[in-house]
Design goal:
Layout lengths: L5 H12 L5 E4 L6 H10 L4 E6 L2 H13 L7 E5 L17 E7 L14 H14 E11 L6 H13 L6 E6 L10 E7 L6
Parallel strand pairs: 1-2, 1-4, 2-3, 4-5
Antiparallel strand pairs: 5-7, 6-7
Length: 196
């Protein structure tokens, strides 16, 4: 039995930390895989907010969620870039979100020219780290293999590696003997509030 995939490991880490009844965010809805996973984690009393800049992604996620028989009032899907996520989280939930998941790159089967970039991804990760509670987690699956993906992956990795260790734990999960362009996971767990 081999090691779990990058995506499965992201789900494992989030599943161990996210509680029933919490709020969680899918920063890059795409096909809705992470959205659906988060909905199941938080249960009927929790709430998920999902972001994507492509309506077709949100439509696909809605179809998938309703196909599972899940009430649509448990999820809010927003047609907006992920760096604006804080504007869609109520004041009482700022600093209380359980998990934020990022799955970078492009929409599978969609326009390959519409990709995430560090210009919006890094401010989105900053916002996510402010929104999560102590013990909460942000997972970021990066894809250096497509055009532009290597630049984003390098910038995001470097930014996360410089987070203060008294406030955050940063884990990088990758397969070391695969091609350098293989996707990998960055996971950030919040240990304390900012000391600034």
């Amino acid at each position: 039995m081999g090691f779990v995939s990058v995506l499965s490991f992201a789900h494992k880490l989030v599943g161990e930390r996210l509680h029933v009844g919490e709020w969680a965010i899918d920063a890059t809805v795409g096909g809705g895989n992470d959205t659906l996973f988060l909905i199941k984690c938080v249960g009927a009393s929790g709430h998920i907010i999902g972001f994507d800049i492509q309506e077709e992604a949100l439509d696909a996620a809605r179809t998938r969620i309703s196909g599972e028989g899940i009430e649509t009032d448990r999820v809010t899907l927003v047609l907006e870039s992920h760096e604006r996520m804080a504007a869609h989280v109520s004041q009482q939930n700022q600093g209380n979100v359980g998990a934020v998941m990022f799955n970078l790159g492009y929409l599978p089967g969609g326009d390959l020219h519409v990709i995430t970039t560090s210009v919006t991804t890094i401010p989105a990760i900053e916002a996510a780290l402010r929104l999560i509670r102590i013990g909460g987690i942000v997972t970021i699956v990066v894809y250096p293999g497509h055009s532009g993906g290597d630049v984003e992956a390098a910038a995001v990795t470097e930014w996360c590696e410089h987070l203060p260790q008294r406030e955050f734990q940063v884990l990088i999960y990758r397969f070391a003997n695969r091609q350098t362009a293989a996707p990998y996971l960055i996971a950030v767990e919040k240990l304390s509030h900012s000391h600034n």
